[in-house]
């Protein structure tokens, strides 16, 4: 029985890793297209469309801090080749070589293998986008056995949604689809105790499809898996690299996009790069929350990471003449994975975090800036949920008017 469970865990982790490689590969492909590195190239009197020179790609990975050196860059690209995301234009080389050879993304030439795994991944990603961006999202803060879980949904309600939106023709098909999502590491029971059932049991997405992924993560995961034999993955909604956290929880006192269920005696610590980490110091469950047994005798306390603000600021103070703030207008051109900043608070909303390599950082968005306008609309007296909705439902290019402290 133990061997069977271990085998299932290994298969689940392999599928989860495959999903993350596909996300990272697609994000890389879009970035290379934006940078005009992927283009038609001529070699030996023949034109190869939508390809890239391996040496140029290696240079790009290093200059964009995706890899510290050429050897690592080659290892990263080999991962994409091993997962049928990238291939040599003539399929003469199964190994990625740092040379003047032409390679191409299979999505650009129509040779991407649309097997069962890929189809589940694509449908899971589409479902995630529908549920996380909906105005009245059914992913909400709910409790199961005395533990609160954010962005969760009962299995029966998810089945209802799939039927109402034409994603499945019957509850039986919906059940098969949701179980496939669970097997491929896209969703999970909140405490990882059950398979998927058409019931009141709560489920969550394990993957934030919008989080910007650095290719080096793939290599680090592979090395760690070899050493540990298996990995423990955590929910990614609150990952430090998350592009634009879209909270779907009722406004609380702090109006934070980061919330968890923790013991009142255990302070919540923010640990960078918690991706697939075992947080022993907090005694967290693999799902990112304490097991129900741990909290059975204690009330649920929702704790938020510490605000970056040095002190609270009111709208009146921001608007008062001579206030120690400077106004800036920033244009953030979102990419395929988001804008790259996290907001928090209510009247006024402020920037809590910025992804260093994101469009927001490139546009000049900084922590502790107060958001005054979004695309010409005043948002000073709104909370972070309303501002989030404005950004997410608006154009990809967002014009922000912000106020930041002098000095």
TrEMBL record:
Gene3D superfamilies referenced in this protein's UniProt entry, alphabetically: 2.30.42.10, Winged helix-like DNA-binding domain superfamily/Winged helix DNA-binding domain
Record InterPro entries: DEP_dom, mTOR-Rac_regulators, PDZ, PDZ_6, PDZ_sf, WH-like_DNA-bd_sf, WH_DNA-bd_sf
Domain (DEP): residue spans on this chain: 24-107, 149-207
Superkingdom, taxonomy of origin: Eukaryota
GO BP of this protein: G protein-coupled receptor signaling pathway; intracellular signal transduction; regulation of signaling
Pfam families xrefs: DEP, PDZ_6
An annotated GO cellular component: plasma membrane
GO molecular function, one term: guanyl-nucleotide exchange factor activity
Residue ranges annotated for the PDZ domain, each copy included: 329-406
Protein name, as recorded: DEP domain-containing mTOR-interacting protein isoform X1
Organism: Salmo salar
